[in-house]
Amino acid sequence: MSAAEVQDDGSRLAWVLRGVLAAAVTGRAEPVPPNRPWPLGLRWTRWIGVGRLPYGPVVNLFGLGLTVALLAGSYSLLITEGSRRGLLVPGSTALLYAAAVTVPLALRDMHPLAAWRLSFLAMALVDTHGWLSVPYIPAGAFVAIACLFTVAVRCSRDITLGVALLSFAAVWIKNPPTGPGATVLLLLPLATGYAVRLRQTARRELAEQKKRHQDAEAVLTERQRIARELHDVVAHHMSMIAIQAEAAPYKVADVPAETRKDLAEIRATALDALTEMRRILGVLRSEDGAETAPQPSLERLDELVAGARGTGLDVTTRLDGDLAALPPGVGLTAYRILQEALSNAMRHAPGSRVLLEAGRDGGILRLKVGNGPPGDGHRPTPSPPGGGHGLVGMRERAVMLGGELIAGPTPEGGFTVTATLPEGKST
To answer: Rounded to 5 degrees, what are φ and ψ at 201?
Structure first.
């Protein structure tokens, strides 16, 4: 055997030992997934009202009820079988044994690994020799199988392997004659649970991949939209350059020929730039071929706020500085950010109080839109399928100007969007 093979074998053995240690002492199961949906096979329970309740609490309540039922049945079984065999079984001992093997079921959903450890110890230590014709309390075997399944679903592969090895060793040590059958019985929930885990992991990775793809697509789409909107802004500047270069020789008498030539070249270059911009716009334009409309600025802020108030929002504005004289690119970006922020408030917090702030200070335009929770009698409108990329667009617009946008919920249950836009980097 080569040194590399010895090293590989040692690594595998160390990995197995770490799994056993994690299963017995150090390991932790994954937390309970929040807002778990009802499994497909149980969604029919909506017709009887149960399926309309949150799945997690219902599962735990059902587990608690089943635990009580199994505890009572195990207690009765121990007393009855003991009496039938002529044994005087103390009630307290029977209750202790029954509780030891069944209580882990109540912990299985919230703490699957801890539940398995308790079940493992109970099944290993509880001795029913002389009481029952089988080496294990039947309800305890059922609880152990349920715990093994949940461990395989909610724990990593190394922990699941450690749990399996310890369980197999325990059944062989405690009762060798039943070892083969018990091993097969334990293997079934482990294999089934691990298969469920692999499927859940694959679905989760697919969903994450799809989300990343949607986010990337949203960024590209928003950049195309921004480029189309900024076309009019840049085209206006280039047109002014061409017009001024053409008119300049007529404003001053005796313009030197060299200057006339330079101005003519400036005009020609500006016109060429306009032509190239139209070609670029043709690439970025949507398939329907719609032309870009004149782009808005904060000169239309009053119109934007009036529209928001018309939907039921209680909008208060605090404006500082000459917002109508912003550079065109900055004005367009600011308008779109405020428009999206107010639209979000209309959808997610209808009837709420909204504070809109906009001010210029030292070459920086600062924007802030904060809304409270939905007003009384109003319900939020869920985002349409494939939506939810408004924040992506706002951030793209701010970054395009070298600015920054921060958005997030408030402790009061509202939402705030804050943006800073440098005026010196506008297009």
So the answer is: -65, -45
Percent of the chain that is helix, strand, coil (3-state, to 5): 65, 10, 25
How far is 419 from 398, CA to CA, in rounded Å?
Answer: 7
**3-class SS at 357?**
strand
Instruction: Show the tokens assigned to 411.
Output: 């402790």
Tokens 């809109």: give the residue.
356
Return the ∠ at Cα 190 (arms to 184 and 192), rounded to 5°: 100
Which 3 state secondary structure label does DSSP give 396? helix
Nearest CA among 308, 322, 323, 337 for reference residue 407: 337
How many C-beta neighbours within 10 Å does residue 17 have? 13
Render pLDDT for 388-403 as a digit per residue (tens, 0 to 9): 557 777 887 888 788 8
The encoded tokens of residue 153 equal: 């679903």
Which pLDDT value is given to residue 389?
A: 58
Model-level pTM greater than 0.85? no
- Give CB contacts under 8 A, 24+ apart, made by 68-73: 70/102, 70/105, 70/139, 70/142, 70/143, 71/98, 71/99, 71/102, 71/103, 71/139, 72/98, 73/139
DSSP state of 298: G
Q: How far apart are CA 149 and CA 102, in angstroms?
A: 16
The upper half-sphere exposure of residue 148, i.e. CA atoms within 13 Å in the direction of its Cβ, equals 25
Output phi, psi for 51, to 5 deg: -70, -10
The answer to whether 392 and 219 have CB atoms below 8 angstroms apart is yes
